Amino acid sequence: MVSSEKAAKPENVADLKRPIETGQLLKPEQLPEQLPEQLPEQLPEQLMEANRLDYDFFAKDTMLVARELLGKLLCRQSATGLLVGRIVETEAYLGKDDPACHSAKKRTRRNDAMFGTAGRHYVYVSYGIHLCYNVTTDREDIPAAVLLRALEPLAGLDEMQEHRGQDVSWHKLAAGPGNLCRAMGITMADNNTSAIEGTLYFADDGFQPGEVITTGRVGISQGQDMPLRFYLAGHPCISRK
To answer: Strand, coil or helix: what is 177?
Structure first.
C-alpha cells in the first residue's frame, strides 16, 4: 500500500534557510558524484546545538514522530568535526501490538533501550551483518521506536566516505540502515544512551518537507503491509521506492 500526502507545517519553526537547496529533485544519475562541504559557514555547530530536539518531540505517538522526523537533522560531533544528514526515510515500530517490533514479545538485553524513556538511541545488529539505528518514542509503558532508513548527507561528507571505506556517490552514502550507521559513525557504544544530550543528536533547521509517501515497511517478515514507512517523495537519497 502506497499513499502520498503533503506533510503538515510544524509550528514555531526557526526562520532558517536550508543548507542545500534541492529545488527540483534530480534523478540519481543526474547528480554530481560529490557535493561541496557545507559546514564552515552554513552549518555551524552552534546552530545545531541551539536547535536540538528535546524529550517532548519524541514522547508522543510513534507514527507521528516517524513523520515529523522527515526533514530533521541527525548530527554527530566527531573528534574531527560535525557530521550532519537530513532524515529522508523512516519506519515506525509500535511496540507490543506490532509483530515486527523487537519489543512485541518480551524485554531482553537486546531491546532493553525500547523499554526506557523516549529519546534514547536503540542500536542493534541486523542478521549479524550490519547495524540499525532507532530512536525510542512514546510513553514508557509503550516500548516503541522509529528506525532511520536514509539520510541526505549535508556536512562531513569526507569523513562519511572514510567511514564507508569505499568511494560512494554522495546520495548513496547514508541510503539504507546499515550504510546510515556506517556513514555517521554509529556503533553499539551508542545503544541505550541519550538522543537529547551527547554527541549523537537531532536538530531542526527549519526545513519544510513537501510530499510524503507512505508504504509498508521493508526487510521484515511480519507486518509488511502495515503503512508505517515514510519517505520524502522523489528524494534521491532514499534506500528504495
So the answer is: helix
